[in-house]
Amino acid sequence: MTAAVRADSDLAYMLRYENVAWYGSGQVRILDRRVYPAKTEFVVCKSHTEVAQAIKDMVTQSAGPFTAAPMGMALAAWECRDLCVEKQREYLKKAADTIANSRPTTARRMAVLCAECLKAADSALESGADVPQAIVDRTIEMNNERYGLIDRIARFLVEKFPQNGTDRK
Predict the structure, then answer these.
(1) Where are the beta strands (DSSP E) in the chain?
(2) Integer Cα distance of 28 and 67 in angstroms
(3) Nearest CA among 97, 90, 52 for reference residue 71
(4) What is the rounded distance in angstroms from the CA atom of residue 166 to the CA atom of residue 113?
(5) Three-state DSSP class for 5?
(6) Residue 13 DSSP SS3
(7) How much is the CA Rg of the chain, to the nearest whole Å?
(8) Coil, strand or helix: which one is 63?
(9) 71-97: pLDDT as tens digits
């Protein structure tokens, strides 16, 4: 179930989940950070392997892969939706490996995120729920957790800035 309040609700354009990477209607749209902010363009991926390639090609940068990877997993779930449950699980495990290893510098973290997507998929498969939506919902929860942590860190650090502080070189 999607949280009622999202941690990105009042953030800048490029930090809102849908503007980082988003699954819908059998595709993932990823904000092309190679040209943003000069241009606002999205790379549209129609397969999880295209999502993995976009991550590898640096279409999304900084923490962007941490949204793109799970959204790629939602797309993978859509791709295999007509297979039997066991074949869907196999397909999703292979997709998780492909996506998690698309960028060596983020492979560990993306493997954790993909594992969370696999758990969400398993639960949805067992209950007969919509698997891609279950993964999107879990992605929103994970993003809320990450954004919440960043917010707590920022609030702590802001308190450390001196009043009327100056640059000390």
Answers:
(1) 21-24, 27-31, 42-45
(2) 11
(3) 52
(4) 40
(5) coil
(6) helix
(7) 17
(8) coil
(9) 999 999 999 999 999 999 999 999 999
Q: Which two tokens stand for residue 86?
A: 């066991």
CB distance 74 to 117 below 8 Å: yes
Q: Is the pLDDT of residue 169 over 70?
A: no
Which of 54, 66, 55 is CA-nearest to residue 8? Answer: 66
Residue 71 CA to its chain's centroid (Å): 5
The residue to which tokens 């490996």 are assigned: 97
- The whole-angstrom separation of Cα 81 and Cα 61 is 29
List pLDDT tens digits, range 102-116.
Answer: 999 999 999 999 999
pTM, 2 dp: 0.90
Q: In what order do the strands lie in the sheet with 27-31?
A: 21-24, 27-31, 42-45
Q: What are phi and psi of 118, to 5 degrees?
A: -65, -40
Residues 6+ apart with CB under 8 A from 71: 21, 22, 23, 28, 51, 136, 139
Tokens 């953030």 locate to: 11
